[in-house]
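Quick one: structure for this chain?
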Amino acid sequence: MGLPESLLERVQTAYPNMTNSEKLIAEYLINSPEEFALSSARKIADAVGLSEASVTRFAYALGFTGFAELRERLQKELLQRNNRGFKDILDQSYRESPGAVPHLYDFLREDMELLERTMAKLSVEAFEQAVEAVLKAESITVAGNRRARGLAVILAITLNNVLGNTRLASSYAGELADEIQRLRPDGLLIAFAFARYVRETVLLVEYAAKKGVPTIAITDSPLSPVARAASIVLPVETQHKAPQLSYVAALSVANALASTVALRAWERAEQKAAASEALFAETGTFWTPS
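Got it. Here's what it folds into:
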């Protein structure tokens, strides 16, 4: 009989016959697969209180040539698992809770949980680096496609209201090359990307890296293709139990970024706001009661 296709299935199948040391490593992999996939053998060994050699032997026991091969396999599986279509999400949700329809408060509680999980994984140091990159940039491009488009629109408008140097990357077919050409090393690219990752966004981030353009990725995993190419990664949680992904944490991080920038560049933001308000009044941009 061949080995199970999934690494997690392979670990679960082998678990009853593992040594005590192997079981400790297996439990860490099963309970924290993303953290395991991002860690070195030394870091995993320290986390479970074993030697680095024990982690290597664990990989051998599962049929791998070493820890590096095991980790690479896990990274690929996690990306494949997350990179599902909406139909797959709906099917899984129905199989797990057939006929169940969540209440409004269930959705709100799950969004609150996403925020808590995002707070636990988001590095304050990375966030500060993102703020400094925004303040330093001569020009800013914000990119996001399909489900991430709305987030990109909100952040681009907000940062432009504050700094006056921000634009939204085009999502029209055939304009990717134009967007790449507009990127400059003294500028900044902020990209929103969530599974399933849109090819144009991934390519834009990769070409920005090749051109030496600083890039902030707001994404659902440090393993995502945009995270691998970005200068700064702000990971957010998106996995809802309901048959839909939620981007409330991504919006909250974007809002925190724009608000912090506004407070750090108060004089500049105030001048930009005053000029904008004068134009709004002159052009009658907003409805006012008669």
